[in-house]
Specification:
34% helix; globular; alpha/beta; 27% strand; 371 residues; single chain; FAD/NAD(P)-binding domain
């Protein structure tokens, strides 16, 4: 029986497992972390196209039980003037609404759904090498499959075996935080974008009153050592002077935040090879974009559906992988380019979680249609 091995048990890897399992292919997921710890961290915005992709995998209802919906966006300038209020996403179907959701919550929901369907997810398996169809892990164990899918994220080990490429720094530090102590102006289901004088900030308040926020700041790239050594107090003290003169809730939100983290906005260059031998890259491992478009998770879910359709219709063959890449590369690389432009604009409203450029994505994802 054909078998697919997926390296990475996060959002991309687990979504792909659901897709190829639905296509009737035996699949096993191998995750380096001993549990779901890799998902601990920031929240994300899952867009309507991501929810549409999950619907093709019969997983949209499971994901809709976590997080909370977003149906509109308000943009406010640094003077406090409201610049725009607009609907976002599919307004008619609650299962297609944008969702603000913790990365850990989303990962847990997808893994629970995969396990419910009998998909094996093996934790504590850190990849060290691939020899044709055999993978080797740090503990000395091996596994063999017909296709090895690298869904292991921005710093992909599998990509290092196909096309060693370091992520590019996109020019911004991205701060994330959560607080129940701030009481910013908000409406249920609305994401707020603040065009600060030196920052770009977004926040959404959950039904329980927790403010989830991010702040993008142009600055030098942080080293891994600086990120590891930094404390929430340190990052908060660095951020507050950048927002204190703006007539927005930014200073109030940041000052009230105890849980705060930072990362570098990074992406990958377009045109990277996605395949070599029996290996294939998918999600951020193949086409990471800076976070400005808010499309990372949704793009990975789209990848999963299209790969599932390709192997369903064409088997685990070069023809299937050609079809997959032909469909996916234009869309995801346009997203990389758009996100880079929006990141460079800094305060241009770039953080809006907007769908990627127009392609007939509904047709591309429709499970009933051939690939």
């Amino acid at each position: 029986m054909t078998r697919i091995l997926i390296i990475g048990g996060g959002i991309a890897g687990t979504s792909t497992a659901l897709a190829v399992h639905k296509a009737g292919v035996d699949v096993t997921v191998f995750e380096a972390h001993p549990d779901g710890a890799a998902d601990i961290g920031a929240f994300l915005t899952l867009a309507s196209n991501g929810m549409l992709a999950l619907a093709q995998l019969d997983a949209d209802e499971a994901v809709a039980r976590v997080g909370f919906p977003l149906t509109s966006m308000r943009v406010t300038g640094h003077t406090g003037d409201v610049l725009a209020v607009t609907p976002i996403g599919d307004q008619d179907d609650p299962l297609r609404h944008y969702r603000c959701i913790g990365r850990a919550e989303l990962g847990a929901a997808l893994r629970a759904e995969a396990k419910r369907r009998g998909i094996e997810i093996v934790h504590g398996k850190r990849l060290t090498g691939v020899d044709d169809g055999t993978v080797t892990f740090a503990d000395g164990s091996t596994a063999t499959g017909d296709l090895i899918v690298g869904a292991d994220g921005l710093n992909s080990t599998v990509r290092g075996l196909i096309a060693p490429t370091n992520p590019r720094y996109a020019g911004q530090r991205v701060f994330y935080g959560y607080t129940t102590d701030a009481k910013p102006d908000h409406e249920p289901g609305r994401i707020e974008m603040l065009r600060g004088s030196g920052t770009a900030i977004g926040y959404a308040v959950s039904p329980a009153g927790e403010t989830n926020w991010f702040c993008r700041v142009p600055d030098a790239e942080l080293t891994p050592e600086e990120i590891a050594a930094g404390t929430p107090e340190q990052w908060r003290d660095a951020l507050l002077p950048l927002v204190s003169t703006d007539a927005t809730p930014a200073a109030e939100i940041i000052a009230a935040t105890g849980r705060l983290m930072v990362t570098n906005a990074s992406d990958l260059p377009e045109g990277l090879p996605w395949r070599a031998g029996r290996m294939l890259l998918l999600g951020d491992a193949a086409h990471a974009a800076s976070p400005a478009t808010g499309q990372g998770a949704s793009m990975a879910m789209e990848d999963a559906v299209v790969l599932g359709k390709a192997v369903r219709d064409l088997g685990v063959t070069a023809e299937a992988l050609d079809a997959y890449e032909e469909l996916r590369r234009p869309r995801v690389e346009q997203n990389i380019a758009n996100s880079a432009r929006m990141t460079a604009a800094r305060t241009s409203g770039a953080a809006r979680p907007a769908p990627a450029p127009e392609i007939d994505i509904a047709a591309q994802l429709d499970w009933r249609r051939p690939v």
